[in-house]
Design brief:
The complex is a heterodimer. Chain A is mainly alpha-helical. In chain A, about 75% of the residues lie in helices and about 0% in strands. In chain A, α2 runs antiparallel to α3 and α3 runs antiparallel to α4. Chain B has three domains: about 30 residues, no CATH class; about 40 residues; about 180 residues, no CATH class. The termini of chain B are far apart. Classes of the chains: A mainly alpha, B mainly alpha.
């Protein structure tokens, strides 16, 4: 059991981080804290992907500057993480811009106040 | 029996034809008989609504906690079945990665396999990423752009911001300006190095573009946006990021059209695509900063 935890420590950390981020997204009432939760979930996914590509004793996959029979890490997860980071940055910026608009319109970014105010305006 | 069945069939046909409502008659009568309860007063309704919201907001965190705990347990069970970390025989290290590592240098001219992979083998993916960044900046511009003249915000806010600008222009921060004078050339040089050397060393379009954008942000914070706007106004901003995306699309389309295989000018081609990505990323980073901080480029 302990052996399993030690060998898969990165995956376990990623799962725990993912849970923390999801809980943040669901429970926090402040919209910016929800976005922070999203970013924690993103980091968990990146950690998992990057750890999947690692090979023991491997170096960065830059061909030709290490001696004979070098062992490189797997380059594919690195590329996937790059894609993920780009999407995460874009989504974060878009969400923050929406939150700024919400703040300009309603004067608050607390979710319960927002719900009450929107309901009052709808009546 | 036969009669009711026929009846049912004719009812169905007439419903499909749109001649009658799909309601059973008995149900309809019952609905008619049902007496509505007296409508609650607005205060009562408001109170009930608030109570419902209150109860929801208090029961909700517990439910969220349980959902998260269950999810984490399921994922941990999945982790227990995962192959060992760092084992070279893992199923993820298959022949695709092997092919990239072995032939990337010949086929794309890039010693950095990650750069060669994302810009040549999986170039469409990266084109999509550039489009995502482009669209993100466009969306943020739509949402946050402050049009001079037709503005919904109050004049107090506008006056306050103008006063702050004036104050900052008259008393510039000495530490910031001196440090910027020292750092900005180094940052731009490093950005160009990372950008153009991405196929040989760690780096490439994304990291180099980010460094370039950060240099622009430092310029803007140290010397004020009006000085940056002298060489990088919103027209140039739009032109540069559109040019980057079009350059990428054109180059990659040309590459695919030529057969996408072992061109002799592979290295310079990768460098050009890196440059295009870098331009888009730099504009994105600086655009986010400018739009969020003052609502204009």
């Amino acid at each position: 059991m302990l052996d399993l935890i030690v060998t898969n420590r990165f995956a376990i950390t990623a799962v725990v981080l993912f849970g923390i981020g999801l809980l943040n997204v669901m429970v926090q009432k402040n919209l910016i804290k929800k976005v922070v939760g999203f970013n924690i979930m993103d980091s968990a996914v990146f950690l998992l992907l990057a750890s999947l590509g690692y090979v023991d004793g491997g170096t960065a996959p830059i061909v030709g500057d290490v001696g004979f029979h070098p062992l490189y890490i797997n380059p594919i997860p690195s590329g996937l993480v790059l894609t993920g980071i780009v999407v995460s940055v874009s989504i974060t910026a878009f969400a923050l811009a929406l939150i700024q608009r919400v703040y300009r319109r309603y004067g608050t970014i607390e979710l319960d106040e927002l719900l009450e105010r929107a309901k009052k305006e709808a009546d | 029996m036969n009669k009711t069945e026929k009846n049912w069939k004719s009812q169905f046909v007439s419903w499909v034809n749109g001649e009658r409502e799909p309601k059973d008659r008995t149900l309809f009568v019952m609905e008619r008989r049902h007496i509505a309860p007296p409508r609650p007063t607005p205060e009562e309704q408001d109170r009930r609504e608030r109570h419902r919201l209150y109860r929801f907001l208090h029961g909700y965190p517990l439910a969220a906690l349980i959902i998260c705990a269950v999810l984490v347990c399921v994922l941990l069970t999945a982790v227990a079945a995962m192959p060992d970390f760092g084992d070279p025989d893992n199923p993820t290290n298959n022949e695709v990665a092997e092919h990239y590592l072995e032939y990337s240098y010949e086929e794309t001219g890039a010693a950095n396999v990650v750069t060669g992979m994302i810009l040549s083998y999986r170039g469409f993916d990266t084109l999509g990423e550039s489009c995502v960044l482009f669209l993100a900046v466009s969306c943020v511009t739509l949402l946050l752009r402050r049009e001079p003249g037709c503005d919904e915000e109050d004049p107090d806010e506008l006056r306050r911001r103008r006063q702050e600008d004036e104050l900052r222009r008259r008393n510039p921060d000495v530490i910031l300006t001196q440090a910027a004078k020292l750092l900005i050339p180094c940052i731009f040089l490093f950005a160009v190095y990372v950008l153009l050397h991405g196929e040989e060393s760690p780096g490439g379009g994304f990291s180099g573009g980010t460094i370039l954008g950060c240099g622009l942000i430092l310029c803007s914070s140290a010397y004020g946006p009006e000085n940056v706007r002298r060489f990088f106004n919103s027209r140039i901003f739009s032109a540069v990021r559109t040019f980057g995306l079009l350059l990428y699309a054109g180059l990659y389309g040309f590459y695919i059209f030529m057969g996408a295989n072992g061109l002799e000018y592979g290295a310079s081609f990768t460098m050009a695509i890196d440059l295009a990505v870098g331009l888009v990323v730099a504009c994105t980073v600086y655009g986010f900063f400018a739009l969020f901080s003052r609502g204009e480029i």
